[in-house]
Write a structure and sequence with these properties.
Elements lengths: L5 H12 L8 E3 L2 E9 L7 E10 L5 E7 L3 E12 L2 E6 L4 E3 L4 E4 L5 E7 L8 E8 L3 E10 L9 E3 L3
Parallel strand pairs: 2-11, 6-12
Antiparallel strand pairs: 1-2, 2-3, 3-8, 3-9, 4-7, 4-10, 5-6, 5-9, 10-11
Amino acid sequence: MPFKWIPTLAAALMLAAAPTFAQDDTTLGSLTISAAMARATPPHAPVGGGFLTITNGGDEDDRLVAASTPIAGRVEIHEMKMDGDVMRMRPVTDGLPIPAGQTVVLEPGGYHLMLMELTDALTEGDTFELSLTFEKAGEVTVTVDIGPRGMSGAHGMRHSDG
């Protein structure tokens, strides 16, 4: 077969075209915050989503209690989970536990940050600063990379307060 190299070339081209982010891990005490990213939004979108990973390498539990950014009027910690056949999203009002020795991932379809009252669209390739406040470790600011839009639409999702 004369074109055995085509699948290899195609894979290499896809990897080369994939966005890469240069954000470094941020450490605050025994906590390590990594992979901070948000999805690009359409113009005039009022909300966006923020995602990151928090690893607690210490012996003491902590809790993410607040977040803020200059690009949004407010930031809320949210959880998405199935309620029967419906995916529901609700704010986490008591903070997000970060157990000792464990990693908590804020990702689409689970815990995430809702960037509310955006001052401008989130544009792919840009970055913004996000301050995270932890119950015990204190406050730290991370740089958030803005990646491509994804999972447009929210079919079957209901936002509730409880």
